[in-house]
Amino acid sequence: MSPSSQLVKMVKFNNGQQYPILGLGTWQTTPDIQGTDQTEMYEAIKSAINIGYRHFDCAAYYNNEKFVGMAINEKIKEGVIKREEIFITDKLWNNKHNPEEVVDTLKDSLKLLCLDYIDLYLIHWPMSTTETPVARDSQNRFIESIYSYLDTWKAMERCVQLGLTKSIGISNFNMKQVKDILGIATIIPVVNQVENHPYLTQNKLKEFCETNGILLTAYGPLGSPYRPYKRTKSTKGILLDDPMVKKLAAKYKKTNAQILIRFQIQRGVLVIPKSSHPVRQKENFNVWDFEISTEDMDSLESLNQNLRYVKIEPAQHMKDYPFNEEL
């Protein structure tokens, strides 16, 4: 195991499994659809492993499982890592909520990853769509299917029972939907992966989940700087450029991104910043040698404005769209 990887703080899930609190996100590092840039994800994962990353966040929808698996298995063959030192999160996409398809869908992902099991499997969104992943109606909206995330959850539990995944969880679920899952679950979700950053702290959801033994994982922890969104007078622009973030970066002699990543770590939130660039990967990983003061943590918390970058507008009409509820 890389000496640097030993610095990573582990968190304990409600089922006793340990997981690295810091990981690497892989959304939008997908190879070109024509296959002309298939090495980007492959090289990104290899460089991250060399730096010390051991937690990788994937999803079927990202269309990069094959390249994640190739990189991990090459590093295992090289003797750089062992399988048990790597922690893989994968996700079930919206068009596979049919309980009869969940197990086979995970098996398909395992084949692409060239792994016997994954460490964490999530329902990517609570909404269920038709079989075509992004099919649209005449109004350019996703087409809803009949399946309930409650039925899907029972099939997720089957994945654990079959040894295909060690843990299961949810993603983008609001408080009501988490309550619904808790009402029928025989295996409690270990995490709820949600958009989370100082502009969207989601403290009430965090408190509710943690009270019920569910940890949050923060995606978009840097404020999704490359994701387009509508700015209004109520927004403060790009989080990485926020004056408070810049001020604290200067104070602690760290990058703006390092401040935002450390913010989540000190809140006990798993965090998965995305980068395919080795220099930025290394910078984002180098967050273990400082601590943000309580006063400065409060200053970051005060930036909250409930600004959500990820809205999935074609799904807003669906009955299980999570953001029509306040929490």
Fold topology:
Blueprint: E1 10-12, E2 18-20, E3 24-25, H1 39-51, E4 55-57, H2 65-78, E5 87-92, H3 102-113, E6 118-123, H4 149-161, E7 165-171, H5 175-184, E8 191-195, H6 203-211, E9 215-219, H7 243-252, H8 256-266, E10 270-271, H9 278-285, H10 294-301
Parallel strand pairs: 3-4, 4-5, 5-6, 6-7, 7-8, 8-9, 9-10
Antiparallel strand pairs: 1-2
3D structure, described in words:
It contains ten helices and ten strands. The termini are far apart. Strand 3, helix 1 and strand 4 form a beta-alpha-beta unit. By secondary structure, it is α/β, with parallel strands linked by helices. About 5% of the residues have low confidence. Helix 2 crosses helix 3. The strands form two sheets. The chain has an eight-stranded parallel sheet. A two-stranded antiparallel ribbon has the order 1-2.
Please estimate the helix content: 25-40%
Strand content: 5-15%
Secondary-structure element series: EEEHEHEHEHEHEHEHHEHH
> In one word, what is the shape?
globular
Stretches where pLDDT falls below 50 for ≥5 residues?
A: 30-36, 228-235
Structural class: alpha/beta
Mean pLDDT: 91
Q: Span between N and C termini?
A: 40 Å
| Strand segment count | 10
Gyration radius over CA: 19 Å
Adjacency order of strands in the biggest sheet: 3-4-5-6-7-8-9-10
Count of individual helical segments: 10
Main sheet, how many strands, which sense, barrel?
8 strands, parallel
